[in-house]
Amino acid sequence: MTSTALESFIAQATARSRLQPDPADCVLALAPLMLDLLDQAGTFLEPQHYRSSTTGYTRNLIFDAPDASLSLYSIVWLPGQWTPVHDHGSWGVVGVLEGILEERGYVRLSPDRGADKEIDLARGGTVLLRHGAVTSFVPNPDHIHVTGVAADRPRAVSLHLYGRTMSNFNIYDVGARTRRRIEVAHNES
Ligand SMILES: [Fe+2]
Predict the structure, then answer these.
(1) Distance CA 168, CA 181 (A)
(2) CA angle at residue 162 from 159 to 165, to 5 degrees?
(3) What SS3 state is found at 159?
(4) Distance 43 CA to ligand 1 centre (A)
(5) How many angstroms does the Cα of residue 47 sit away from the middle of ligand 1?
(6) Centroid of ligand 1 to alpha carbon of 88 (angstroms)
(7) Domain presence at residue 106
(8) What is the end-to-end Cα distance of the chain in Å, rounded?
(9) Domains of the chain: total
(10) How far is the CA of 97 from the centre of ligand 1 (A)?
(11) pTM of the prediction?
(12) Are strands 101-108 and 121-129 parallel, antiparallel or unpaired?
């Protein structure tokens, strides 16, 4: 079942992203929509959007555009669950519904010539995001980070909007200075 708030968000996000080909302009236009969507989440989130797993953080699909230009997921993070170090190949806008989502950034020191080796990353700062917070990122150079929830904190739930169907991304081995493309799973709506 879809809600008016979700339908309106999708319609506005689709329109604004088409008007803003520059990813930095796009996230500027979409971040306020995510802020409002968080307030409306109770009108469209259903039990399947809160599915979790003890084996790792869980991505639950909410919306996937037929032309693959936009996708929205709810992600459920149990205590101690983290992503690998990864990028996105897309802009993204993230809003926190529940708990404290932590983001640990990396800064790419070596130029990106599209190669999967000789990649030098330095650890950057951390961000702690509570309910109601919205953050975003843009590609080229791609945003590289780890996201998750500390083991001593409660479950977190967040909404993630991307500028493509987010079914794969690069994960990085910082010590080996390499990266590789992986498929990332999700639960269907
Ligand atoms: Fe990410």
Answers:
(1) 7
(2) 110
(3) strand
(4) 26
(5) 23
(6) 6
(7) yes
(8) 10
(9) 1
(10) 16
(11) 0.96
(12) antiparallel
63 phi, psi to nearest 5 deg: -150, 140
Is 10 a member of any domain? yes
CA dist., res. 163 & res. 138, Å (int)? 10
Does residue 189 form part of some domain?
Answer: no
pLDDT tens per residue across all 189 residues of the chain: 568 999 999 999 999 999 999 999 999 999 999 999 999 999 999 999 999 999 999 999 999 999 999 999 999 999 999 999 999 999 999 999 999 999 999 999 999 889 999 999 999 999 999 999 999 999 999 999 999 999 999 999 999 999 999 999 999 999 999 999 999 999 998
CA of 148 to the centre of ligand 1 (A): 10
Reported as type and span, the H/E element at residue 108 is strand 101-108
Q: What is the dihedral of CA 172, 176, 180, 184, to 10 degrees?
A: -40
How far, in Å, from the CA of 117 to the mean position of ligand 1? 20
Q: What is the rounded distance in angstroms from the CA atom of residue 55 to the CA atom of residue 35?
A: 30
Structural domain range at position 115: 4-183
What whole-number distance in Å separates Cα of residue 118 and Cα of residue 116?
7
Rounded to whole angstroms, the Cα distance separating 178 from 85 reads 11
**CA of residue 134 to ligand 1 center, whole Å:** 13
Residue 95 lies in a domain: yes
